Amino acid sequence: MKELLENEFRSLKLVQTPKRYTTIRNYLLGLFIILILILFLPWQQNVQGKGKLTPYRPQDRPQSVPSVIGGRIEKWLVQEGQFVKKGDTLAVISEVKEKFFDPQLLGRTSSQIINKEDAVKAKMQKILAGEKQVGALKDGLKYKIQQTKNKVKQMRFKVESERAGLEAAKVSQKNAQDQYKRLEYLYEKGLATLTELQNRNNKTQEAQAKLVEQENKFNSVQNELINAEIELNSVEADYLDKISKAESSVNETAGEIFESQAEISKMRIELSNLELRSGFYVIRAPQDGFIVKALRSGIGENIKEGETLLTIMPATAQMAVELYVRPMDLPLMNPGIKVRVQFDGWPALVFSGWPNVGVGTFGGVVAAVDKVNSANGMFRVLVTPDPDDEPWPDQIRAGGGVYGWAMLKSVRIWYELWREFNGFPPEYISELEAATAKADSKSEAKSDSKDKEDKK
Prior knowledge:
- By secondary structure, the protein is an alpha+beta fold.
- It folds into four domains: 1-39; 44-60 and 317-455, Efflux pump adaptor protein, beta barrel domain (Elongation Factor Tu (Ef-tu), domain 3); 63-95 and 281-313, CATH 2.40.50.100; 105-279, Helix Hairpins (Orthogonal Bundle), CATH 1.10.287.620.
- It is built from seven helices and 14 strands.
- A six-stranded antiparallel β-barrel has the order 1-10-13-12-11-14. The protein has a four-stranded antiparallel sheet with strand order 2-9-7-4, with no helix packed on it. Strands 6-5-3-8 form a four-stranded antiparallel sheet, with no helix packed on it.
- Helix 4 (105-189) packs antiparallel against helix 5 (194-279).
């Protein structure tokens, strides 16, 4: 009926909506509904950053191999790109300093040390002899003092004896004098003869002579006593002088021994340095790795102490990603936050808000956040491989470019669009939430693996 009316009335046909427009309207309406529904889909907020690959541990980073001593390159045993093991010889150098030219320097230095030690032993024997001499002098002093004391004692006894003789001589002289006076009186009275008087006079003279002789003996013995006492003091002083000289010689020899021992220590240190230096003529690999670049080339080229010869890249380096984020995004970064990374050279289809949909990206975890900014004004974030995700490719190399997304909270797309239009920052995720999310992801991974095993 409708087709019949349209055929009869052309004006009615003109006011009708064409069928193709209805179809377009339906498509647009459906697309609009789909867009409305998409706005309510979940969207994971993220912080994006660029960076590069770097070894995570300091010992895994490219290492420069220097020459500890200065020398001349004699031989190269490796080439760039070659794999070497720890301890392998990389190059051989020779000596360039004159004082190390002697090929028998180690042997001669050892001989000098032995001779010096023998000299020390001889001086120690000299010290022992000097100590024995000091002991003998002390014993001699003891005996000499005792002998001199006995002599002094004898002289004192002799002095007393001579003193008694002197007193007897005085008494005899006085008696003779008195007898002479009495006989002289008798002679004057005529009672004695001249001969008797002369005999008595002779006896008086003899008594006087004996008195003088006895006085001389007494004085002589007394002087001998004084000399003995003086000898007693001089003996002690003489022996003390000899003992002091012997002890001084012993101490001087001991000082020479100390100096010799110090010289021996220095020579031993020098010998050890020479032995260590001889080991530095061969430059060895500090660890397993690949020769990256030789910084010095040729044979016979001189190198300085500490100058780098070549660079080694460790063979088993644990890689990490250095992502640089803006300072305004730094408060959102915490250790434990999940990160998706894309490596240069690996094609990837990326949906930053839907990481599970992306292809060619790899999982990571924030391991550390720098406390200070870098030279470019950005803050560095270290990202390590996620143990619960697919492992990173073995072909990645240090220095390769990386693009990463740090995964934050999950929100609706309409909220994300509204946040972007208004310039609001992403939602902050705390360390506790990050740890909880990490634990949830591990439990989900375990449940998935368990389901797979059950299915098997």
